[in-house]
Amino acid sequence: MAKLAQKKADTESFEQKLWKTADKLRKNIDAAEYKHIVLGLIFLKYISDAFEELYQKLIKGEGEYAGADAEDKDEYVAENVFFVPLKARWAFIQAQGKQPNIGQIVDEAMDLIERENSKRLKGILPKVFGQQKLDSASLGGLIDLISKITLGDAQAQAQDVLGRVYEYFLGQFALNEGKNAGQFYTPESIVRLLVEMLEPYSGRIFDPCCGSGGMFVQSEKFIEAHQGRLDDISIYGQESNETTYKLCRMNLAIRGIDGSNIKWNPEGSFLNDAHKDLKADFVIANPPFNDSDWSGDLLKNDGRWQYGIPPAGNANFGWVQHFLYHLAPTGRAGFVLSNGSLSSNTSGEGDIRKALVEADLVDCIVMLPTQLFYNTGIPACLWFMSRGKSNPLPKGEGVTSRKGEVLFIDASELGYMVNRKNRAFTYEDIAKIADTYHQWKKKPSPPTSLPQSEGKMPSPPAPLPRGEGSYKDVKGFCKSATLADIEKHNFVLTPGRYVGIPDEEDDGIAFEETMEILTKELAMQMREGLALDEEIKLQLEKVGFALEVD
After folding, report:
1. What share of the chain is helix, strand, coil (3-state, %, to 5)?
2. By CB atoms within 10 Å of each CB, which of 84, 386, 485, 539 scores lowest?
3. How many percent of the chain have pLDDT more than 90?
4. How far apart are CA 414 and CA 430, in angstroms?
5. What is the pTM of this model?
6. Within 278-390, where are the H helices?
7. Claim to verify: residue 202 and residue 126 sit in the same structural domain
8. 466 Cβ partners below 8 Å, 6+ apart?
């Protein structure tokens, strides 16, 4: 048993080992609160490491740093490094780690950093370390633990140590928080899939329910992995939960992403749209599923409802139309919704879905497997919508118009189990889905080249080929359907209705015909069963037994 435990420990990733130790120090604090304590300290360590590396270069004064003042804030601003005052530097905090007032010392450090970097960090950092439920010994232990890892120097940044730790911790907190986790975290593989399909190389990216900012982080990673230019995109977001908003701003800040267009207000995107005039090139989002508390009864005459008034008891089609309202004339959107959005006819939802299909706004529907989300067991799907399907295509883009068609992909059998409760997509799964979509769009762009992320997924396989005209329907997986096909199914968008049964299970008979045959066979077998029951009863009576049937 000891050898087995050692073997398991040896195969654990760096992030897993770090998490286990940090979680032991949590004691009686809820994961929702502890999240801000741990991630706040990781943030502080990161910016202190980055500051210290530049500080030492300025102290040496060699080359371009000759004559520089190591305590001049402008020197750090010029290098896009946060300036850290003396009493907020990690070495100072670590030296005070055994003091009974260490919580107050950390809170003061956060306040000092905000004051010195007010343009980017004002009101963002957590100041929760002095609370009584967090004892000084546990906080000191956490500081010692984080002190052992270098997060912000050039080598750590090149290896994305911070990104790996931060994203792993976000995922673990989501697991611990259960149903409330969705307000700040979308699993990484879902974000990767959305980004790989939308390909947001340039333009304005908008997420009106942005949580911890995962959509933006993956968009930046996508561009880096594909050798694009980070200054070709700008991000816009909105969040109604203040603590989640702060988490988002921290998440962006540690990656050097400008978060100035991420807005917070308690009313939320429906009641107080913080980007009323924005027309985005890409909308990418994971809104709350089936939200019944979205104030729909106050917005019945809202100008955003061009395709029908969403029911007051469910915000799904309120979100869909909010996304469309903010799309530029050639913009595209990719977002997560519950499966109910594909087929529900409750309170006019079917009429709205029909209007969206008839307006030729729906581009692709992807059915997801179960257990992808940490916070809900509700089955989910991805919607991709485009305002550009009916527009003339610019010359030289190599994209064929799919006007009057919708691509359906059934990915419900893909993925692997990360643990007993949760599933994730592999790189191969993401490549298969994304490349199918791009083949359908007939885009002869380079093959998918997904960035590696140690400890998250199996290594990426050889990319699937892309090329003009390479798309083909695959039974059980994908189908390009016309609007007439969709009308025959009463505008229900469930992929299973269109992709059919895989070839190895298909007998060549249409689904409707198969169901009719099976229904008749079942009825016949039930009649035969009743007749057999009567025969048995009759025979038993002949030999003097009475059969009682409830």
Report:
1. 45, 10, 40
2. 539
3. 42
4. 9
5. 0.77
6. 316-325, 340-343, 349-358
7. no
8. 435, 438, 439, 443, 444, 445, 446, 447, 448
